[in-house]
Amino acid sequence: MSDNDHLAGGYDRPGFCPVCERPTRFRSSDDFYRAHLRCGDCGSLPHERALAMILARRRPGWRGQRLHELAPGGGALSRKLQRECAAYTARSEDPEARTFPDQSFELVVALDVLQQCERPDRALSEAARTLRPGGAILFTLPVGHEALGRAERIHAWSGLDVEVTRFHDPTHGIVGEFTDVYVARSWPSPTRKASPPAVPSAAGPPAVRQLCEAAAQAVGVSADVHAGDAIFRFIWEHRSFASKAEAVRYYFTDGARSAAQVRAIVDRWMPGTPPLEILEFASGYGAVTRHARAALAPHRLAACDIHPAANAFNARTFSVPTIQSATVPEELELPQAFDVIFVLSFFSHMPRSTWTRWLQRLYRGLRPGGLLLFTTHGLASMAQMGEKPLEADGFWFAPGSEQHDLDGGDYGQTVTSREFVDAQIATLPAAECLQYEPGYWWGHQDLFVLRRG
User: Fold this and answer.
1) Three-state secondary structure call for residue 440
2) What's the mean pLDDT when you consider all of the chain?
3) Same CATH topology for 11-185 and 259-452?
4) What are the boundaries of each domain within the chain?
């Protein structure tokens, strides 16, 4: 069924739900999709999915931020926020006369609330009052721009900068009327204290070390962060976080979430097996490794990276055996075959010249019956990256990325269609694709799980 194919009086097509973050079918027997086009798994509606997309895109660390939801209606997105945000609040009170102190929250979320207020100007002004510097109000409205949804009017009422995103996104079930998401943002105060240095190290300034120790203690891992950790640098400098503390919390909680996802996949496809030999390829400076060693126990974990300093840091800090990677796939020497190799956000950066060769080399590193799981920038990633001009076979690459010490021609930004990836999997002898889930990792990278025959 194409994007515009509809059933008589309704709609039915597969896609990926940004609320429950899984493949699903979007169905409606009514032409008014906003109220009837539901996810077959969580029951979310288009405007909920749209706000979930913007929340993940603009505030990737929202789970660790102080979030207040105005008048939650008990829908799928409200349940997700309450379940996954540790500092979620939903006090029942008048939106036009809130009792919260000034600067209480990093985020305020309002799903179809403002149109119910007698004085929406007061409601927005009160919401803005409770925002911390750098915070944002995210909201939806079941009305058009000619009514409440004028950006100029919202700015006048709240004093905040306003961004409006209008969707037509069948892949994520965001179609129909009034799916716009409004983001009213408070900029950080210019008089705030200077931020700590750009990237902390294991022996960094005390204030930075304290942030890492607090976040690491919450998830039970080492607080040491290497100065060369490009993933930490990327998160530390990302403008979506209201504070450095929120960015650091996201670094540690996101690594824990990835390690748990890997464990769930191993348990699903290799249940009840004796201890396995597992390799984390392209491990970097331990963003996931620090969690995976315990999360995968009693299986045995090894880590492999192109940076000798990363391997030395991971071996010393997390007590895992390490393997030196290579720029040329065929030059990678593995000391043994592995039962599982997992590769996160690596094929999303490889140029055409090595993409398939790396897939083939890692596949050869498996024992018969072993699993190779990897992620890619697929079509869902373009919601964050912008549309890319894919070549005829579904491949796009641009040199350069957050890994500034690597040659841009060897490591850049890559987008691949499923058809491209399937064609490369077909070059692997006796490979079986056990699992494909678009947008599964970080809400946008596609997951592939292969078994070696």
Assistant:
1) strand
2) 88
3) yes
4) 11-185, 259-452
